[in-house]
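Reviewer 2 asked us to include a model.

Predict the structure of this chain.
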Amino acid sequence: MASSPDIPSADNTPENPGSGSPSDTPDTAGVTGGGQRRGRVRARRAAVMAVPATLAAAGLAVFTAQGVLGVSFFISGMPFTVTAKSLDGTGFEQFGALDNMIKDSPNEGDTGGQVLVVTSAIKDATLDSLCQSVDLGGINLLIKAGSGASKVKATDLTTDSTLLTGNAFFRNIEIGNDASTLNKAGVKGPEGVFSQQADTVHIDDLRQTNYATTAATFTLPGLKLSFSDTGC
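Predicted model (structure tokens):
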């Protein structure tokens, strides 16, 4: 697969999915409450969601996914914010996915229990001054780490995001791969899904809105967990 030279990227943000209804949406006329919601869920799972989800820091891609789990667990449906002064990664991959909540989750709102996300996978990552916060309803659970000489380190890191911003630089980037052929971070996406990968990634002023994070190892020097009126 051909690779491109080093490519610095512009600062853009992923867009939210459109609200178009697929032609095979079940007829819910005369059905109330849970029947209408279940109809929406079936429609979401049946449709190929061609949604513009432009990588914020790179301004590069349109990701599509159909019934794909970005992570191996049900998400709570509560988004959380992650920021860092910088991120350096070796082995980078990215593709679209759908995260799922438990049945009748109190956090599903009008989503039908599914959230369209961009899954980013990094084989080895280093983050300077990590901050993570989640709004618990008037109070924020705040986690900070790696603000001194020792940085936060993670292996086999994946994040499922609806927003990613920053100033990014990629080395040997490949754009337009089939997600099932990715080989930089050890993660393979679904067949036929648009993706991209690079040997390395550097992002300054990283900010993400995430629904899930996984890692094989996660080292948090100087960890501080607290409650705060403000988030990251």
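DSSP finds one helix and twelve strands in the chain. The longest helix spans residues 34-46. We have added this to the supplementary material.
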